[in-house]
User: Which sequence fits this backbone?
């Protein structure tokens, strides 16, 4: 059963057991032989597992996985979208430009449905990978993060470090922001081109 491969690597990640080289080779072979059968949730599960273990998979797998994930990315929920970028940051591998364009398209369409932890994972990954997502994406992220802050009594909220916010020219969110206009734009200092890479240049 093809789901064995996603479950196996996920189980090792949950237990923080690093796979042996031989078991990884079996995983890569099993994955390749069942491409096109995995659900988006299983694809997210696999890549999250490598991130959890701080283990960069081999390049050929990443290429194949990106192709498969892009095919179904429009159906992925906020947790999946944030987790895969978080995993890239954990293994310190820059996603391809094609992947990032598809990822940003989904983020721009669905960020209004994301939760606090998902926003925290996303900005941490942007910062760790030195990705500058553009003014519109940052404005959207900040607006939705402020909404998550206001709703923290009803839903879990995961604070973002002041360093991550300052990196993108954002102010730390506090109680004084309760009555702010959620549609106000983030006031950011002018960006120096040599500090960030635009994700669409690849």
Assistant:
């Amino acid at each position: 059963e093809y789901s064995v491969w996603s479950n196996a690597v996920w189980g090792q990640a949950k237990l923080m057991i690093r796979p042996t080289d031989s078991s990884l080779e079996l995983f890569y072979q099993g994955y390749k032989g069942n491409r096109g059968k995995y659900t988006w949730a299983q694809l997210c599960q696999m890549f999250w597992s490598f991130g959890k273990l701080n283990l960069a998979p081999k390049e050929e797998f990443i290429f194949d996985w990106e192709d498969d994930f892009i095919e179904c990315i429009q159906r992925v929920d906020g947790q999946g979208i944030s987790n895969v970028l978080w995993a890239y940051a954990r293994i310190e591998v820059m996603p391809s430009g094609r992947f990032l364009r598809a990822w940003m398209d989904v983020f721009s369409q669905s960020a209004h449905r994301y939760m606090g932890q998902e926003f925290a994972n996303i900005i941490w990954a942007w910062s760790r990978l030195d990705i500058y997502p553009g003014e519109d994406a940052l404005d959207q992220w900040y607006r939705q993060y402020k909404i998550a802050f206001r709703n923290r009594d009803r839903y879990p909220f995961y604070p973002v470090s002041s360093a991550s916010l300052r990196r993108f020219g954002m102010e730390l969110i506090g109680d004084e922001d309760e009555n702010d206009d959620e549609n106000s734009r983030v006031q950011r200092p002018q960006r120096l081109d040599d500090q960030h890479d635009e994700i669409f240049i690849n």
Remarks:
- Confidence is low (pLDDT under 50) at residues 176-202.
- Residues 135-150 form the longest helix (16 residues).
- The two ends are 37 Å apart (CA to CA).
